[in-house]
Design brief:
With 89 residues, the chain is of the alpha+beta class. It has a single domain, classed as Alpha-Beta Plaits. Helices cover 37% and strands 42% of the residues. The protein is built from 3 helices and 4 strands; from the N terminus they run βαββαβα. Strands 2-3-1-4 form a 4-stranded antiparallel β-sheet. Helix 1 runs antiparallel to helix 2. It is globular.
């Protein structure tokens, strides 16, 4: 199952490391990733795939939200289909 993961917040050391470690621990493969820093704000968007045996989206979202709270950033997880539908022009 493909998901879109977004991360946003003040830049600090370890954001990518902690978020990607959580994904690896939960059998989630990153398919594509883009990140940048805009005037001190860290932004990242990933397309990822939850592998067989991995968690359901709500469980993954809760785990990543906890990591985000520890880092002081917002982490959101959406099913790829929902993300695409919401951002159609």
């Amino acid at each position: 199952m493909k998901v879109v993961i977004t991360v946003l917040g003040r830049d600090r050391v370890g954001i990518i490391a902690r978020v990607t470690a959580c994904l690896a621990d939960n059998d989630v493969n990153i398919l594509d990733i883009s990140q940048t820093i805009l005037q001190g704000y860290f932004t990242m968007i990933m397309l990822a795939e939850i592998l067989e045996g991995g968690p359901e989206i709500p469980e993954l979202a809760a785990r990543l939200e906890r990591v985000g709270e520890e880092l002081g950033v917002q982490v959101r997880v959406q099913h790829e289909g929902v993300f695409t539908a919401m951002h159609r022009v």
